[in-house]
Design a protein that fits this description.
heterodimer; A: alpha+beta; 2 domains; six-stranded mixed beta sheet; five-stranded antiparallel beta sheet; 20 strands; B: mainly alpha; 11 helices
Chain lengths: ~375, ~230
């Protein structure tokens, strides 16, 4: 039901609330453009800008913020022009918030001072209620009197996110906010980012090279490679595409929305109902009825012509082949499968593909070796 | 009192000169330092070199040209005459102008270094928080570059106190007007008043040593704040 509703809202609202960005950035030394994109991005939810380092993700974000001096292009946000041939709204007049890779707090101000810096300059006075909500969402009540040098990397980043929220942006840009943190700190901040997603109705562009973060947080994704857009769309669409370049083949996989319907305490498993069937996954102590996101990577999916119950694989789902595609790796092939309303992808060897004689439209069984709850 | 009246007059004059020059330099040196720190123009090299020239030129060279420029036929001289101020050589304000040029690198360079050390990031962060250019300068650049300003003020002051050659060229030796401590010492030596010379020279050494010691202590205690 949720999904249906979202589609309807998308169609009517996205046209008005969309961000159109068309940029060309060429550095004098470089042979080709460093960034050459023409994108229409949804004006709601979290849009991941995903790619390897050097793919131009940060440059794109900086262009949107007006920080990139060499950028030529057009940018409009919810029908307001921020940049075109004739006009360029400087960064400080754009209603955006920006979270840098390093927290970039002002070292001469306390955490509170940093927040006040934003509050003082926001277009509208922030209500005490909203202020408290930001502070609580980011969990920074107790560290406000400290200077940035006294805070841990994770705490600094939370203050920086709060600071960006307090400017009351119409668009929040986040440039790999977790990249400079170690893994423990990342796990510390991720829940705050999820809360951010659920408590604030601000469109967020989230630059990342980490598939884990993208799968967990994003609703939409844009994949950049060498300054060009190679895929964009909803998270499910983008990562079930079969034509992502080789460098992304490990990321190919489905991200499915489901609900916990049963917990098997004895074997520490939980059953997640998605549109196409039920999945047993490792019990992450989520309660029954909880909405979760699970990720099924292509490399964990194999195919069988009949429904064996003599294998160790718990998750076997009826599937229909919708697309078969060779990969750049000559030994392997990718198969897109329709499972109920969802799409998953299987990666198998060309030889198996041949031996099973897999054809488009064929009904068979997808065996899923592992699926993980990512949220 | 061990100092003669003329010694005390010279000390006061020196302090007045150094204070005035420091204030003037902080005001005009800051935009120059800001421009040098931020510009990508090809003029950065030439202007930077021009500012640094007094570091290597003999004071007599600078003094000579300033004397000509401030004289009745010079550009500066004609300008000040047209304002009804007369010409500047051999006046206190003539000394101020000359000292401003002469001490410029000691003020501009520490400020410039502090501003360059800031990098772009704090300014970008401030811009995303709706701070315009002037707001950014006062709310971010000034407080973060404060150690550079303090170093600049101390060096500018101390260097002006220690001037000699350019004072002789521009100011001459007029009691209460241009006769600063360094010139007074010279006079004492010329007149073979070694005791008086010792006293003033000793004061200068003590002053300079204290100032530099204070500066190094300050620099160790408050390095530039780094963005994290």
């Amino acid at each position: 039901m949720m999904a249906d509703l979202e589609v309807v809202v998308d169609k009517t609202v996205i046209n008005k609330q969309a961000i159109h960005a068309c940029f060309n950035v060429t550095y004098p030394q470089a042979q080709s453009s460093s960034l050459d994109v023409d994108l229409t991005l949804p004006g709601r939810g979290i849009t991941a800008i995903f790619g390897h380092s050097g793919s131009g993700k940060t440059t794109l974000l900086r262009c949107i913020a007006g920080l990139e001096k060499l950028a030529q292009g057009n940018l409009s946000v919810n029908d307001v022009v921020w940049q075109n041939q004739n006009s360029f709204i400087p960064t400080h007049k754009r209603p955006l918030g920006y979270v840098f890779q390093e927290a970039s707090l002002f070292p001469h101000l306390t955490a509170q001072g940093n927040l006040n810096y934003a509050i003082k300059r926001a277009d509208e006075k922030i209500s005490n209620e909203d202020y408290q909500r930001v502070i609580e969402t980011m969990g920074i009540e107790t560290i406000l009197q400290q200077y940035p040098q006294q805070l841990s990397g994770g705490q600094r980043q939370r203050v920086a996110i709060a600071r960006a929220l307090l400017i009351q942006p119409q668009l929040l840009l986040m440039d790999e906010p977790l990249a400079s943190l170690d893994n423990a700190r990342k796990q510390e901040i991720l829940p705050y980012l999820e809360r951010l997603r659920s408590s604030f109705d601000i469109p967020i562009f989230y630059v990342s090279h980490s598939m884990d973060e993208v799968a967990r947080l994003a609703d939409h994704a844009v994949v950049l490679d060498e300054g060009k857009v190679i895929a964009q769309g909803s998270l499910g669409e983008v990562f079930t595409r079969l034509d992502l370049p080789l460098g992304f083949s490990d990321e190919t996989g489905a991200i499915l929305q489901g609900e916990i319907v049963e917990r098997d305490e004895q074997w520490h498993l939980a059953k997640v109902a998605v549109a196409g069937g039920d999945f047993w996954v490792r019990d992450g102590s989520d309660k029954i009825g909880h909405q979760v996101r699970i990720r099924v990577q292509a490399r964990d999916v194999s195919l069988a012509l009949s429904d064996h119950d003599d294998s160790s694989i718990l998750n076997r789902l009826k599937a229909e082949v919708i697309e078969i595609c060779a990969t750049q790796d000559e030994a392997m092939a990718l198969v897109r499968l329709k499972v109920g309303k969802d799409v998953i992808v299987a990666r198998l060897t060309q030889r198996s593909l041949n031996e099973l004689n897999v054809q488009c439209g064929q009904q068979l069984f997808a065996q899923i070796k592992s699926a993980a709850i990512i949220r | 009192m061990i100092f003669s009246d003329s010694d005390i007059a010279a000390i006061w004059l020196t302090l007045r000169l150094a204070t005035t020059v420091t204030l003037v330099l902080l005001i005009i040196g800051t935009p120059i330092a800001w421009w040098l720190a931020r510009t990508k123009s090809w003029l950065k090299g030439p202007i930077g070199a021009l500012v640094a020239l007094p570091l290597v030129l003999p004071p007599t060279v600078l003094g000579f040209y300033l004397l000509i420029a401030m004289g009745p036929q010079g550009v500066l001289g004609q300008f000040t005459t047209s304002l009804g101020l007369g010409t500047l050589p051999f006046t206190f304000w003539g000394l101020v102008v000359a000292s401003v040029f002469y001490s410029m690198p000691f003020v501009v360079q520490p400020i410039q270094n502090a501003m360059e050390a800031l990098g772009d990031r704090p300014l970008e962060a401030a811009a995303t928080l709706r701070a315009g250019p002037i707001d950014r300068f006062f709310s971010i650049v000034l407080p973060l570059a404060k150690p550079g300003f303090i170093t600049a003020a101390i060096l500018g002051f101390a260097h002006t106190v220690g001037e000699f050659g350019i004072v002789l060229m521009i100011g001459g030796n007029i009691p209460g007007e241009t006769r600063v401590v360094s010139v007074q010492i010279y006079d004492h030596v010329e007149a073979l008043e070694y005791a008086q010379a010792h006293l003033l020279a000793g004061v200068m050494i003590a002053f300079s040593f204290t100032v530099l010691l204070g500066l190094y202590w300050f620099q160790r205690k408050s390095p530039l704040l780094v963005l994290k």
